[in-house]
Amino acid sequence: MERRQFAVLAVLAGLGLGMLGNLLFYNRQIGLSFPLFIVVVVVLLLVLARAAGVALRPRGLWPLLPGTFFALMVAFRADPLMTALNVGMVLTLGALILHYLPLDQRLDESSLAQHTGALVETTFMLIPSAVIESVEAWAWLKERRQQRGQVFASVVRGGLFALPILAVFAFLLGSADAVFASYVSQTMTSISTFFGLENLDDSLFQGVLVIGIATIATGALGYGIIQRPYPPAKAIPAAAEADDEGVQETVEKRKPAFKLAMLESGIIMGAVVGLFALFVFIQFAYFFGGRTTLEVAGLSYAQYARRGFFELVAVSVLTLGLSLWLEHSTVRQSQRENRIFKGLALAIVGLTSVMLVSAAQRMWLYEEAFGFTHLRVYTHVFMLWLGVLFGFFVLAVFRLKTQIFALGVVLVSIGYLATLNLMNVDHYIAERNIARYHDGQELDVRFLNILSADAIPAILPLYQQAEAGSEAHLWAGQWLRRQLMSLDERYAGNGGTLFSANASIDGAYQQLDAVRDSLPVYDPNLYWGSYYSSYDEASDYESGWETLGTSVPGGR
């Protein structure tokens, strides 16, 4: 395909996506509209790439699978934070696909620095790329006008001139005849409804939305398909690629700007191993040893477990960064030095893994004692996937695959967010906290107040099973009534359309609608306050936070 012909198609596709985006998103609740829009974008990208002669490599398109999953989850989760994370992940994976699509360089064999550069470059090149495609498309129109009797260009120009003229005459004729005016009005209403332009007073804002989406889409298509004929990545001879273990690299190694001798790195790593070994010994002697050992030390098990998990996560992250820096900067001049480095690295990973287990167990004990929140659940899941990332670091130390750690970061990020989606975090938090309440512990209703409709299937049974007149029954009834009022407003507006469909919200609304008559009337005087995330977690239940339970009164 000729370069300028592609530009015309890219601009037309961008305008089409702009109008589609206006139809799906303007003044509408997000839901099924997002995955539908992403599917159309992907189809257009693949079709135009094939038409432009870009060789599509399945190995470079694998991020489409997790990207599609996260796009679909926008239509399955009501939690605004999860929606934002899912949209962000789709855009991130999309930027990586666009950057690597026309290149021989593979995404799974690129470094973290290259991934970061790809995201930054793609973001900042979208608008300039859209300008380039628009200029090329306009040049094609001028060329066709000169070469082919002005047919196509004349049709376009004539249409642009005819629209305002027809508008003026239609207005005058409509003023002269009421029947003609009604037909014109019906026609304009049908056109406006089809393109999502029901409120013509908002046409300016809708025009901005259309142009904005069209610009980004056009720039993305141009940048990702045709504007970067980069040369293929250079490979070095196989004899120079092999390390001391005989494993071959496929990209040229860069010398670090700052070098450390093995003796210097060995001192650093040995000191870290010694400190971590002492800490792990204490963990086995006291924390993993159980309550009896701690009581001898003058501490209760709850006092010992209620702190330290965030610090241990911070230590683990810093350790990973230190290990990566040492692996990159240390010069190993012999197989013996290489084996020593690998041994120390394995020792650090092993000891850090024990600390991660300690942090995860501390977090679990803390959650069981004081309840589940977003921060605690997100951190807990992060610990598990951080352990997986350490596994990729071990693979990188032994050089089993080029840039295996960078690939690990991408896969762990995908796995982390996928886990949170599959957990359905708001439902999980409500379910676990209510289970604690049934076991006789406090229920932090101030935190439950901020949960989304994802939590309705967990809180509705609490209302139905709690004793009538009890504080749990009273709070749950008021919370459910507020949720129903909010959902009624959603479905009375534009939240009930096909494009706004959301499996979690629609299912929760059906549940609440079925018990509408049994829910109490909303009483604004019955309010349990709101949750503040900035309180001191070590003393949250010692400073007057309102809860429900056997020992702490709640509700007012």
Salient structural properties:
disordered C terminus, 556 residues, mainly alpha, two-stranded parallel sheet
Please provide a written account of the structure:
With 556 residues, the protein is mainly α. The protein contains 21 helices and 2 strands. It has helices spanning 3-25, 33-51, 64-73, 80-100, 112-147, 151-176, 178-194, 203-225, 238-241, 262-287, 291-296, 301-305, 309-329, 335-370, 374-397, 404-423, 425-438, 445-448, 456-465, 471-492, 503-514; strands spanning 260-261, 330-331. Strands 1-2 form a two-stranded parallel ribbon. The N and C termini lie far apart (71 Å).
Helix content: 55-70%
**Helix/strand class:** mainly alpha
How many domains make up the 3D coordinates? 3
Number of strands: 2
From the spread of the alpha carbons, the general shape counts as flat
Query: How would a textbook summarize the main sheet?
Result: 2 strands, parallel
**Secondary structure tally, helices:** 21
Distance between the termini: 71 Å
- The fraction of residues assigned to DSSP E strands is under 5%
Question: How large is the radius of gyration?
Answer: 30 Å
Instruction: Give the strand order, joined by hyphens, for the main sheet.
Output: 1-2
How are helices and strands ordered from N to C?
A: HHHHHHHHHEHHHHEHHHHHHHH
> What is the averaged pLDDT score?
79
Q: Any low-confidence stretches, pLDDT <50, length ≥5?
A: 231-253, 532-547, 549-556
